[in-house]
Amino acid sequence: MMRLGVVDFLAFSRVCKSWRSLALSNMNMFIVSRPPMSVSISTDANHESKCYLEDFEGRKLKISLPHSDYKACVGVSYGYLILLRAKTNDFWLMNPITRHEFHVPFPFLNVRSCTSFLGAILVFSPLISGWVFVVFDRYFHKIWFVIFGKREWTYVTTHFSILDLHAFRGKIYTLHLDNFLSEMRLFPTPEVTLLEFNNFLKPNRRYPRLVSLGEKLYVINRISEFPYMIQEINFSKMEWVSCEKTVEEYAFFLSSDYCFSAFIRIETWVDLYSQYGKHSFPDKNGKGKLFRAKMWYFFHDCLNVNFLHQ
C-alpha cells in the first residue's frame, strides 16, 4: 500500500471498511512521503468547475467542485483549497483528498474588482486552542479573521501595505513594503506590531514572500534570477541572516497564479528533474532547481486534515 501513488491510495481506501481502516491508520506516514502534485482548476462545457491533481507520473485525480460558482482560488492551507465567490463575498473551503468542506461567509468587502489582491489561510491559535480563518488584502492594509465555528468577524488595520502573511510556530507574521516585518496578535486585542531588527534586509527585493521550513522562517525573493536570494529571520538575535551559500540545497516550488511559494531540501525526493521535468524552469547557470505550476498541493500540510471534524 505504501508504494501506491496518491490516486491509487485513495482508490485502495474505498474498497471496503477494513481496507479503509488500514489506509487511515497509515495516512500520516503515507502523506509525508508523497511529493507535491500540481493543481489546476477549470470549467467544462457544462459550466461545472473541476479540480485536477496531477502527480509526476502524469496520473490525474479529477474532482468536481461542489459549488461551481466558486471559481477563484486565493490560497491553499492545511490541504484545503480556499475558493472565493465574488458575487456574494464568501468562501468555500474544500479538501480535495478527504472531500471535507465548509462554508465561510465574508460580510465586509465587495471583492469583485480585487480578487487577485486577497489571500487567506487557516491558523491554529494556542491561546484559544482553536482554529482561525484569516483573510488579508495585500494592498489595502486590512486583515480580517473569524474563529472557526463562529460568525463574529474582527479586523485590524496596518500602517503598511501587506505583501504576505504567514503562520509560523503559533504566531502570525506580516511582510510589508520596504521589507518591514510585523507580528500580528489576534487575542486578546487584535494588533499588528512592527518588529525591530539589529540589521537590515538586503534591498532590491521584488515580490518577497515568507516561507517556513521546519523550525525556521525565511524571506525569499519570488521574482529574480535563479537561484533565489534567501534570508533567514533569526528571532533570538533579531537579525537577518543570509542563506546564499546553502540555496543550492533546496528545490523551489512556485505557484504562478496564487502567489504561493515553498521550498524543500533536495534529499527529500531523489531525482526531482525526472519527476517534475515539465514543470522545471531552466537556469542559465545549470544549477536551478525551480519548479513552476499554477498551484502546488503539499501533502505534509494535510497532517491535521481531521481537525475540522472535531
From TrEMBL:
Residues 2-26 form the F-box domain. It comes from the Eukaryota. Keywords: Membrane, Transmembrane, Transmembrane helix. PANTHER family: OS09G0392200 PROTEIN (PTHR45463). This is F-box domain-containing protein. Residues 61-261 form the KIB1-4 beta-propeller domain. The chain crosses the membrane at residues 117-136. It holds the Pfam family F-box.
